[in-house]
Amino acid sequence: YQVIPRAWVQAAMKRWTEQAPDYGLGLVVGADVARGGDDKTVFAPRRGYWFDMLRKHPGRETPDGQSVADLLAIELRDGGVALIDVIGIGASGYDISRVMGLDVRPVNFSKGSDATDKSGTLHFINVRAECYWGMREALDPTAYPPIALPPDPELEADLCAARWIPQANGIKIESKEDIKKRLGRSPDCADGVV
After folding, report:
1. Are 91 and 110 contacting, i.e. CB atoms less than 8 angstroms apart?
2. First vs last C-alpha separation in the chain
3. How far is Cα 43 from Cα 82, in angstroms, rounded to an integer?
4. Would you call 24 helix, strand, or coil by DSSP?
5. How far apart (Å, rounded) are the C-alpha atoms in residues 94 and 66?
């Protein structure tokens, strides 16, 4: 019941190059926000199907929404859009980023989902399950164009940690708290990427 097979993640990391291919697509930054503690604020920049090296900031560097918005302003200095996890401290970072004129979009992992998998048969109980399953499908060796992920052992472990549970109302991804217990830390890198 592992959501994303390790071999698929490793193949995506082997495809990675330091220079982004020219997909003609703009910058999109996934943002998983932490407030203090042991968790990290992670920015996952991508252009098309190529992900850049993750920007990881200890939680103590993002104690409030203003600090998150300031770091996002650096990421988006040449344009682009950020998708911010708006649960918890991320909501404040989102609001302040909007006031600063940054192009940001809210992502609420706990919100219900009407999406299905690419076969149209599997449903998801929330946006978190939808996003993790979407990454699974994007990393499938038969998917085109292929995803390229930066070689990052922490990202590899995070992406391979999540397990799925079939339920009557759709696919559920195990809780972040359960993943934390198994990994010994929060899967911040995976959440930023997905």
Report:
1. no
2. 18
3. 9
4. coil
5. 9
